[in-house]
Amino acid sequence: MPARRRADYYCFPMPPDAQLLGPFVELSRADWANLAETTALPLDAATLEKLRGLSDPTSLTDVREVYLPLSALLSRYVRITRELHQSTNAFLGRATTRTPFVIGIAGSVAVGKSTTARLLRELLAAWPEHPRVELITTDGFLFPNAELDRRGLMHRKGFPESYDRRALLKFVMDVKSGDEEVSAPVYSHLVYDIVPDVSVAVRRPDILIVEGLNVLQPARIRLDGRAGLAVSDFFDFSVYVDAAADDIRDWYVSRFLSLRDTAFRDPRSYFTRYADLTHDQAVTQAEQLWDTINGPNLDRNILPTRDRATAILRKDREHHVQWVRIRKV
Ligand SMILES: Nc1ncnc2c1ncn2[C@@H]1O[C@H](COP(=O)(O)OP(=O)(O)O)[C@@H](O)[C@H]1O
Ligand SMILES: CC(C)(COP(=O)(O)O)[C@@H](O)C(=O)NCCC(=O)O
């Protein structure tokens, strides 16, 4: 038998596509939709149009049946975490400042994380108890292209090692330390690079949403054999947006075709060379990008983190959420 590495002893042996049901309660779409505590939707069709990602068909019915109940559950978590903070302060005899409630949103490229994150921001901000909701995406913590090139990682964009993980961890730790102002760098999908000298500031919101491919990655084992910290150690709640890999691949390809007719035509786009591809050439190009970068990243790095989430939203081929899993407490 081959020698086992020390870290193997701490791993629960699971096939990569196995799903843990034990720690989760699973609700069908219909049962989940019945949980919405209010029928008033604080969002109209025009706002939804602005929040939806390119080629994302999420409808007002989806908002009402899926995202509204999720925001109601999240609001409970926020309230109870505040009570826990007060109770902990009373126990410690200290008056520590409450820190933002941090929500992580994970999932593959093209699965619709941005739409989920923007919808939750809108819905959560409608609650008078926590109106200040901010959102950051982890792409701002990708290394700039020049650095990715230097490290031989230009074809690994989105893999865990393509991020400045230390800076991302410090950002989330500073937010959870209650720092008055914490800033994050900014990425441009259009230019396909970090925007130099630009940052966004996070000033102690009630809720911070952190959206990105790898936010549920566990801590790395350091050279001395000890585990470090991971951003997910500072999440109060996390959501994994899930779908069949073949469906996500198709969504990626059709989004690429839409981008060919829109963003790729912008002279500032990194991908102007794709604007004049024929339909068939564009499909081949998109499939190649998927099969060499985003597909392997999903298999190796993102999907194995699914069961670390507090909530899993599983979409069908039409982007409709079929079932929801919530971690038991
Ligand atoms: N090359 C691109 N040019 C312009 N926008 C893009 C490009 N690639 C992705 N986007 C946009 O960036 C956002 C994030 O995309 P992605 O990381 O695939 O996550 P998701 O689809 O899960 O939200 C989406 O709103 C998408 O439409
Ligand atoms: C920018 C991304 C890595 C996503 O970053 P995230 O905000 O999820 O950390 C991804 O959308 C991307 O552009 N991947 C590169 C491969 C491709 O062009 O499809």
Automatic annotation (TrEMBL):
Its EC number is 2.7.1.33. ATP binds at G107, S108, V109, A110, V111, G112, K113, S114. Belongs to the prokaryotic pantothenate kinase family. This is Pantothenate kinase. The keyword Heme does not apply. Pathway: Cofactor biosynthesis; coenzyme A biosynthesis; CoA from (R)-pantothenate: step 1/5. InterPro entries: P-loop_NTPase, PanK, PRK/URK. It is found in: Cytoplasm. It comes from Microlunatus ginsengisoli. Keywords: ATP-binding, Coenzyme A biosynthesis, Cytoplasm, Kinase, Nucleotide-binding, Transferase. It is an enzyme of class 2 (transferase). The keyword ATP-binding applies. HAMAP family: Pantothen_kinase_1. Pfam families: PRK. It catalyses: (R)-pantothenate + ATP = (R)-4'-phosphopantothenate + ADP + H(+). CDD domains: PanK. GO terms for molecular function: kinase activity. Gene3D superfamilies: P-loop containing nucleotide triphosphate hydrolases (3.40.50.300). The gene is coaA. It comes from the Bacteria. Coiled coil: none annotated. Residues 102-246 form the Phosphoribulokinase/uridine kinase domain.
